[in-house]
């Protein structure tokens, strides 16, 4: 069963408040410059751009008690939560344009809240080079863009874990991580201890993207709300240099396309984050254009008409 196509609400979140490198704050405009709205509309989709959210500036301060910019990160994520939850309540599909990946705390907490109210099971596909499962005690940097999955699973300060009204917002069993290839030493043990399901690059190398995606999507039914959190550094650094924390050895362009097309085949995607695009590190907006091509595939673009 295919979910009826909703109107897509674009929500820009122009901040790098949780990142280690400045520049992700320009990500939403880079996606717009690449032609995001017009491209989606060319496929018959209904798209409404709500512009950019407003939040505190990046003070660029050192960590305090293991967190950089905690008050500002919390403020941004509350704002993101409210915007995403508003879209879902209105029956629209929120597409969050980041911004750094700490903003997934607000986005996914809103999705989880909506799913609890509607009685829908939630599956989160976390497409990323990093597990983002650090805590204040494990992080080598204090940057909260390395913590959102842990926070969503209840590990973090109440300013963040309480967003959305329920702690934890999700269980690790709701998450499937794909493309992981950079995990901090202490974080590795915590990922294993928590039972997080991770399809790292070795798994993809051994099993191929098709089997990986079949495993990651197993158990989804017509009631499932599928949320995709797409960190652009999921892609190999050769094809996506415009990110703050590029890591070699990621999925190729074709592997990434297959990943997106198999997600589209489910017909269940109901919310989306596009995160960590950093135009300051890009070449002629090429990474934004690649990201846009992959987003097209998430919404059903394919070479042939498929059954």
What does this structure look like?
By secondary structure, this protein is α/β, with parallel strands linked by helices. It has one domain (8-298): 3-Layer(aba) Sandwich (Arginase, Chain A), CATH 3.40.800. Helices cover 36% and strands 16% of the residues. It has helices at 27-33, 36-41, 70-89, 104-118, 148-152, 158-161, 185-194, 201-217, 253-266, 286-298, and strands spanning 8-13, 47-52, 93-98, 122-127, 175-180, 197-200, 225-231, 269-275. It has an eight-stranded parallel β-sheet, sandwiched between helices. α3 runs parallel beside α4 (104-118), α8 packs parallel to α9 and α9 (253-266) packs parallel to α10 (286-298). The two termini are 12 Å apart.
Strand content: 15-25%
Instruction: State the CATH class.
Output: Alpha Beta
Assembly type of the chains comes to single chain
Low-confidence stretches: none
What is the strand tally? Answer: 8
**SSE succession:** EHHEHEHEHHEHEHEHEH
Q: Supply Rg.
A: 17 Å
What is the total number of structural domains? Answer: 1
Task: Provide the CATH superfamily.
Answer: Ureohydrolase domain
């Amino acid at each position: 069963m295919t979910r009826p196509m909703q109107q897509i609400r674009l929500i820009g979140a122009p901040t790098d408040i949780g990142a280690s490198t400045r520049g992700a704050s320009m990500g939403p405009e880079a996606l717009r410059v690449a032609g995001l709205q017009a491209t989606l509309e060319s496929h018959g989709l209904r798209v409404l751009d709500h512009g950019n959210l407003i939040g505190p500036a990046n003070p660029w301060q050192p960590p305090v008690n293991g967190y950089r910019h905690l008050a500002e990160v919390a403020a941004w994520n509350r704002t993101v939560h409210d915007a995403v939850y508003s879209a879902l309540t209105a029956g629209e599909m929120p597409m969050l344009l980041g911004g750094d990946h700490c903003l997934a705390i607000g986005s996914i907490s809103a999705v989880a809240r909506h799913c609890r109210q509607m009685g829908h099971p939630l599956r989160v596909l976390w497409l990323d080079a990093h597990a983002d499962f650090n805590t204040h005690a494990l992080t080598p940097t204090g940057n909260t863009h390395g913590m959102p999955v842990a926070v969503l699973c209840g590990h973090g300060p109440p300013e963040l874990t309480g967003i959305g009204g329920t702690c934890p917002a999700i269980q690790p069993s709701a998450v499937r991580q794909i493309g992981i290839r950079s995990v901090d030493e202490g974080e590795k043990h915590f990922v294993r201890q928590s039972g997080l399901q991770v399809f790292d690059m070795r798994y993809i190398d051994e099993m191929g993207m098709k089997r990986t995606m079949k495993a990651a999507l197993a158990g989804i039914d017509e009631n499932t709300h599928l949320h995709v959190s797409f960190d652009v550094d999921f892609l190999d650094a050769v094809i996506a240099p415009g990110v703050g924390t590029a890591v070699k050895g990621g999925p190729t362009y074709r592997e990434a396309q297959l990943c997106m097309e198999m997600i589209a085949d489910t017909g269940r995607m109901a919310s989306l984050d596009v995160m960590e695009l950093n135009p300051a590190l890009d070449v002629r907006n090429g990474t934004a254009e690649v990201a846009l091509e992959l987003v097209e595939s998430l919404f059903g673009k394919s070479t042939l008409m498929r059954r």
